[in-house]
Amino acid sequence: MKSKRTKKRYDIYVCMMLIMGSIFLGFSGCAAMEDGKTQASSVGEADITATEGSEESSTKAAEGSEEADAMAAEGNGEIREAGALPEIKITFFDVGKGDAILIETAEHKLMIDAGYEDTAEILLGYFKEQRIGKLDYLVLTHFDKDHVGGADHVLEAVEVGEVLQPDYQSDGKQYEEYEKAMEELGKEPMLVDETMRMSLDGAEILIYPPQRKEYEEEDNDFSLVISMVYGEKSFLFAGDCEKERLKELLGQEEFSLSHNMLKVPHHGRKEKNSAEFFEAVSPDVAVITCSEEKPADGEVVEMLEGLGTDIYFSTDGTVACFCDGENFRFF
Ligand SMILES: [Zn+2]
């Protein structure tokens, strides 16, 4: 048996041991906590990084899916709430068997081709009448005289922002005149050799360039092809594409070929894959830029009529389309 005193000493000893132990444990606990904190904070930081990373990737994914949804909607033609969009106007000038098309949005003007040299007056007359002093874009689909012929006159008559063209050379007289006018204005054209996208007051425009450096048909198949989506309506301007370029269009996956309106390629000339192309586009309305002397091929008209497409011919005069993103009207 231990005496009380002994016990007391023993108690003091135990107590001191406990205190020392506590102090030791306290320190090591603190150290452990420190470590814990360090670890925790580094885990925390890792978490934050991971969270930020995942937030970032989920934001991207959301953007991606929004983008994908929008693209899918465009593809299906069932775009956002439309209808209340400002009206745009598309004019297909009667320049005979040639192209000169003006797209007028709320704030911008984009011209596709400029017709012949001797039909330039028609365009300049319209600019004067409508008080148009500036074109934001002039897109030359290719350099045949019925597309580039009036370009020098347009460039001299109004201010032109950007001139876009395919990346190839021509030795045609009208092309040379256009080049000379550009030189005199100190302008450099933008060579479209990759798919280009732009947005003009809600009109989503895609310019699809030739994918090859050589075609059997040296000029026409270099045509820049333009797709425009405005609200629920879509428009395809197919330049003078012939069979090789139509095949390319049928095979590409950058945009859906299905459009509400088609500017029929090459003034209504029939190609061996015309039927396949028209079916893929399946337009509600087609515009054919042709003349009395050089009308569209009967088979092309039949193919389009077979698809239930309404056809407007520039032979009957300038064709105008008004579109509010939900409906369009042709005159
Ligand atoms: Zn042409």
Write the layout of secondary structure elements.
Elements: H1 4-76, E1 88-92, E2 101-104, E3 109-112, H2 120-129, E4 134-139, H3 145-148, H4 151-157, E5 159-166, H5 173-185, E6 190-192, E7 196-200, E8 203-208, E9 225-230, E10 233-237, H6 243-251, E11 261-263, H7 274-281, E12 285-288, H8 298-306, E13 310-313, E14 319-323, E15 328-330
Parallel strand pairs: 3-4, 4-5, 5-6, 10-11, 11-12, 12-13
Antiparallel strand pairs: 1-2, 1-14, 2-3, 7-8, 8-9, 9-10, 14-15
The chain binds zinc ion (ZN).
Description of the molecule:
By secondary structure, the chain is an alpha/beta fold. The protein folds into 2 domains: 1-76; 88-330, 4-Layer Sandwich (Metallo-beta-lactamase, Chain A). It is 40% helix and 21% strand. It has 8 helices and 15 strands. The protein has helices spanning 4-76, 120-129, 145-148, 151-157, 173-185, 243-251, 274-281, 298-306, and strands spanning 88-92, 101-104, 109-112, 134-139, 159-166, 190-192, 196-200, 203-208, 225-230, 233-237, 261-263, 285-288, 310-313, 319-323, 328-330. The strands form 2 sheets. The protein has an 8-stranded mixed β-sheet, with helices on one face. The chain has a 7-stranded mixed β-sheet with strand order 7-8-9-10-11-12-13, with helices on one face. Helix 8 links the parallel strand 12 and strand 13 (310-313). The longest helix is centred in the N-terminal third of the chain and has 73 residues, at 4-76. The protein starts with a helix and ends with a strand. Residues 1-10 and 21-80 have low confidence and may be disordered. Bound molecules: zinc ion (ZN). Zinc ion binds at residues 98-99, 144, 146-147, 240, 267.
